[in-house]
């Protein structure tokens, strides 16, 4: 049993707080957002993440988990303090480290005895040194500490599952004993552990996200070429994926990657590269192809239905991927914005992300029922691959629409099946 504090309790921190408690530890979750702390203390997850409510509730009841806004209540009694605050993109693409700096300062002021501080947020290379120096400036003279980098690889929508079944635990430290003590926290999960220096660990995170984003932009570029030569990118990806050197994952063509990680982390890596005098051509291309994908999709809609002014267009899916309410950098939200700019009337449905979407795109119309959203529309755009869209009653959809046009931004449907129902259909790269 260890006493652990998690700083920042949202997509990453809330899941970790509950998971470490579930493994038998005493855990404090600290967040500056009072509403979030209040909800979590009542066993209600502030985000849509399958399995999280149950995990939080079970551990609150067992008395192993507590949420607070007060560092003083948690940090002084903790042996381990995880930093899980956000590191969003700033205007230049550089990671915005304000939350990390302020968390480090608060940790520095409240640590007692010996504490291991773990950087779990995705932070630029060199951030371990930054956190160390901030803490050194404010800590009490008798407090000692070590900073370990421990990047996180969970995916939203399957975060609970991913945290209990990690592909690897990466630890970076100048103090090997500190890294080994952090490794013990994960010992029950039987995952491979890689211990290295801090900067290498920080780079492993950026390089991992960058290659996954690269695969997506790669297949999206292949999809563009497939469209010109009447090949089917879905089958191309399948055929490529059978080669064990290539593998089948992260080769789904579509409207591009979004979310709070790939876009910001590729930008941050590219920024770091440029700052160091490198020329990150591949990273630039990955981002450029990703933006193009959205524009090309809207252009395809225009070629199929003509001028969009005053045209009602149905949208299925707003979150950046399935099984989450997260709309950060969602390509679907970008597409909706482009439609509005062109005078269209987007009629949107999403099983989890509509409250978030309403806040950023209040001009669109929202429906609680996917079939209501398509009523009287001139096209249906499927933008997020939620399960409930995969076997939807497309016959009924065709009947409800003013004209049956289906643009499948995630290649969910079999083109021949959809055309048989009377739709004019376009996927991506097929
Ligand atoms: N979301 C993911 O799937 C994922 C996966 C792996 C790594 N990461 C990385 O982990 C980090 C956290 O990601 P997230 O999506 O959970 O971020 P988030 O922005 O959704 O949540 C951050 C939380 O930290 C809180 N916070 C901000 N400043 C604070 C402070 N000074 N003290 C205490 N709490 C504070 C915020 O109120 C918020 O609840 C980021 O660096 C991200 O890149 C995210
Ligand atoms: O073949 C694919 C796979 C994914 N996507 C899109 O890529 C984005 C990211 O998807 P995914 O990686 O599943 O979700 P995230 O929750 O953003 O997780 C990524 O980002 C996290 C934050 O850094 C990392 O921890 C994870 O390992 C990494 O997969 C989404 O918009 C997906 O729709 C595609 O377009 N095609």
TrEMBL record:
Active site: residue positions: 261 (nucleophile)
The keyword Lipid metabolism is assigned to this record: no
UDP-glucose/GDP-mannose dehydrogenase C-terminal domain residues: 314-415
GO molecular function list: NAD binding; UDP-glucose 6-dehydrogenase activity
Pfam families, per database record: UDPG_MGDP_dh, UDPG_MGDP_dh_C, UDPG_MGDP_dh_N
Catalysed reactions listed for this entry: UDP-alpha-D-glucose + 2 NAD(+) + H2O = UDP-alpha-D-glucuronate + 2 NADH + 3 H(+)
UniProt binding sites for substrate: 153-156, 205, 250-254, 258, 321
Keyword NAD: yes
EC number: 1.1.1.22
Functional pathway: Nucleotide-sugar biosynthesis; UDP-alpha-D-glucuronate biosynthesis; UDP-alpha-D-glucuronate from UDP-alpha-D-glucose: step 1/1
UniProt keywords, alphabetically: NAD, Oxidoreductase
Ligand binding (NAD(+)): 31, 36, 87, 122, 156, 264, 328
GO process terms (BP): polysaccharide biosynthetic process; UDP-glucuronate biosynthetic process
NCBIfam families for the chain: NDP-sugDHase
Protein family membership: Belongs to the UDP-glucose/GDP-mannose dehydrogenase family.
Name of protein: UDP-glucose 6-dehydrogenase
Organism, scientific name: Sphaerobacter thermophilus (strain ATCC 49802 / DSM 20745 / KCCM 41009 / NCIMB 13125 / S 6022)
